[in-house]
C-alpha cells in the first residue's frame, strides 16, 4: 500500500499505521474470507504476495503459517522447493462457524427461549475447569447470570455440548433449554444483559469501526485498482472480524435502541460489495496462479452481508 498514490491507498495506509494487524490473525482472515470459497489451497508465496502490502513481512507470515499448521488449521504439502497449504477439515469447520457471526449477524426475532449451561462442582480440579469453561462459553457468547450458570438466547445447544466435549467434561455439566417466567413476578433474564455482556464496550468498538471505514464509501465509486481493492477488503474484513467474534450476538429485541452494531454492519456490507469484484481479480491472479486446486468462487458467497446488492 505504501507505493499506491490513490486516495484509497492513502486512507488504508493511515489505518494500518493507527492499528497494525497481527500476522497470524490476518492469515486467518485471508483463509476464511477469500480462500475457503475458492477451495482453500494456496502456495506460501501467494500468501506472502497477498498480505505483505498490509505491512506484514515475509518472516512473520512464514511463522504464522507454520503455527496454523501446528494448530491444525492448515495442512502442508511439499512440491519440490515450494509449499502448498490447504485448509484442513478443522480449519473449514472453524471458518464455517465464524461465518455466521461475520456475515449474518444477530437474529431479528427471538422466541424467548434460552440455552443454559449449569455447572455443579467438578471435584479437585474444579476451579481450573470452571475457568476454562467460562472462557470458552464467553467466546461462544454465553453470559454468566449466576455462579456456575451460563445463558445465551440464541446459541444452539450443540455449541455448548461441543465445548464440554472439547474440554473433556461432557458428563460434568447440564445443558438445558428454558424460558423464564418473569410474567409471574420473577426477574427476566434479559434484564441482566448489561451485567452479563459488555455491551457498552462493544458499542464503542462498533462506533470506532464506522469512523475508521465510513470515509472509504465515497472513494469507491470510481474504478478500483485490483491490488488496492484486495488489500482494503482484507483490512475491512479483518477489523470487522475482530469485533464480531467477541460480540455475543444477542437477538435484536434484547439490544439497546439505536444499537451501533446495526449501522456498522450495514456499512461493512456496502463497502465489502463495492470492493468485491476488483478484489477478486487480484485474488484470482495471485492465489490462482499455477494452482490447480484453486476453484471457482462458491455461489454461497453471494449471500454474505444480506446478499449482493442488485446492480
UniProtKB/TrEMBL annotation:
GO biological process, alphabetically ordered: DNA-templated transcription
Gene3D superfamilies (alphabetical): 1.20.58.1460, 3.30.70.2650, Winged helix-like DNA-binding domain superfamily/Winged helix DNA-binding domain
Pfam families documented for this protein: PaaX (PF07848), PaaX_C (PF08223), PaaX_M (PF20803)
Chain ranges of the Transcriptional repressor PaaX-like N-terminal domain: 22-91
Range of residues in the leader sequence: none
Residues annotated as domain Transcriptional repressor PaaX-like C-terminal: 197-284
Residues in Transcriptional repressor PaaX-like central Cas2-like domain copies: 108-180
Domain of life of the source: Bacteria
Protein name according to UniProt: Phenylacetic acid degradation operon negative regulatory protein
Species assigned in the record: Bordetella petrii (strain ATCC BAA-461 / DSM 12804 / CCUG 43448 / CIP 107267 / Se-1111R)
Lineage: Bacteria, Pseudomonadati, Pseudomonadota, Betaproteobacteria, Burkholderiales
Gene expressing this chain: paaX
